[in-house]
Amino acid sequence: MSEFVIVKKKNRKSQQFKLSQTSFTKDVDNDKDIKKIDINKFSKRLDNCIAEVEVSPFFTETFDIINRALHAVRQHKTSNSSTCNQIDEQLPAEVSPEDVLDEGSLNQSSGDRLSSVTSRLEAVTVADEPRVQLLSYGIGNFTTSLIAQYQFAFFLSLRKKLKEHYQTCLVYDPVFSPDEKIILEKYSCQLISQNEEGCRECAEPTIAFMPHCGRPLYNNFLWKNLSPSEGQGLNNVVLIGNSFSQIVERTPKSLLRETGNYILKIQPFVKETSLPDSFILRDVFNDLAVHSFPLAAIQTIRSDIGSPLQKPEYHRNEEEFIRNKKCH
């Protein structure tokens, strides 16, 4: 279980893993109680999980949801680039921009020229399209929890699906064991060097995977990305995590103001799509949703909240949120 999540234990078990994630309430730097594992043997199990996720209808449908949200982020990012100028420069004099929208009005010769131009324009668009940063907080001990293992498999499947369109793959959870850190390196994941408490600004298009995390982690992440450049950070984000609408609905307002005030303020403006409830293990992706943040909505939020944005402070002992001791 990650520092950010509390999940109740279930009675169901697999042959080798507890299905539920285990809550770490003790010092996460104490590794002496963590058993060593056979990394090669575990890697084979993880590869099987990845294969299982990739062929599931759940992953197909979920990736479509993520891809549509990501397209909107990229579209905004590229709208401020010089792509339009490049397109105008590549159109031949005989083919006007209006003709591109009405290919049927062209004669065969112009149609051939348009086909050539279209191919070049597609190359410009792909080359100019910003690559995606993958970020994960709070997966937990994926060598001992089947839930965490499938969540990690999903994250790796997502990266594989994106192919060359991702630029970095960042992961952090303070409960990771030494063996898990080795496995992360083996699967080309970059371990964030310290506990950021979710305070990472996303300057580029980012898919943030934060399954079953605690309210303070989401809250910190929202604050950090709402703060810079009129909320441009948040506009770069596609966040996969606990449904904000359900958090607001299920959490007493007094408690939410203490532990998730930015969730409360931002939720009415978020574009949210629930993940399908079709994965074979229901506890792995339950209550998760894809969240995106349209720029117009962010500007409204900034106007309502005012400036400067106050950094969240938590006065109660949050069991679902392990802090960076060096910063407190």
TrEMBL record:
Protein name: SRR1-like protein
Family, as annotated: Belongs to the SRR1 family.
Record InterPro entries: SRR1-like, SRR1L
SRR1-like domain segment(s): 120-291
GO CC annotations on file: cytoplasm; nucleus
Top-rank taxon, per record: Eukaryota
